[in-house]
Write a structure and sequence with these properties.
184 residues; mainly alpha; two-stranded parallel sheet
């Protein structure tokens, strides 16, 4: 029961971290494009030509966020066995970015920066992978502190080998409480 609760907690934390990182990917990419990269001559943009974040990029961020979340759910990345599902995450973010960027070219009232789309994709990939790795390391460090209590039934040489193996390898998280006789 404790293991299921821990898994559910880490899954909830993963979903929250994904929501946070994905919602900040486009604003961070926008900042990099129009505040940092615009200082480089090749990417230079006049201050008065920098597009406002509101309402166009803000709306784009909402649409992209919804697309990513739906694709992450479709790719089933929130199952406990897919905790480190980098391939599914990569595919969901890539397809979501491609779909939204493709659809944005049909919107003629405003022209979105292609570089912002590329940066958004890269930021989303890096942040989601980073948070997954950090969360995985956190999960492994907390699981290592919780051991599985075991009673070995049957007192013989095999049970002694198993007991000594678990005692010599504490990272496996098995704590032998007792070895009892088989009452058959």
């Amino acid at each position: 029961m404790e293991k299921e609760r821990r898994e559910a907690l880490f899954l909830l934390i993963l979903v929250i971290l994904d929501l946070i990182t994905l919602s900040f990917s486009l604003p961070l990419a926008y900042f990099v494009r129009f505040n940092l990269l615009s200082k480089i001559p090749y990417f230079y943009v006049e201050r008065n030509e920098i597009p406002q974040f509101f309402p166009y990029y803000f709306t784009l961020n909402l649409i992209l966020f919804v697309a990513w979340v739906l694709l992450l759910i479709i790719y089933k990345v929130y199952r406990s066995k897919n905790f480190l599902s980098f391939q599914q995450v990569f595919s969901a973010i890539t397809i979501g970015t491609f779909l939204v960027s493709s659809l944005s070219f049909f919107y003629r009232d405003f022209f979105y920066s292609r570089l912002v789309f590329i940066l958004t994709w890269g930021v989303a990939i890096i942040l989601t992978f980073f948070t997954r790795i950090i969360l995985f390391l956190l999960k492994m460090s907390t699981i290592g502190k919780i051991s599985n209590k075991v009673i070995i039934v049957g007192r013989n040489e095999i049970s002694e080998v198993i007991k000594s193996f678990w005692e010599q390898n504490p990272y496996l998280n098995y704590n032998v409480i007792d070895v009892i006789e088989d009452s058959r």
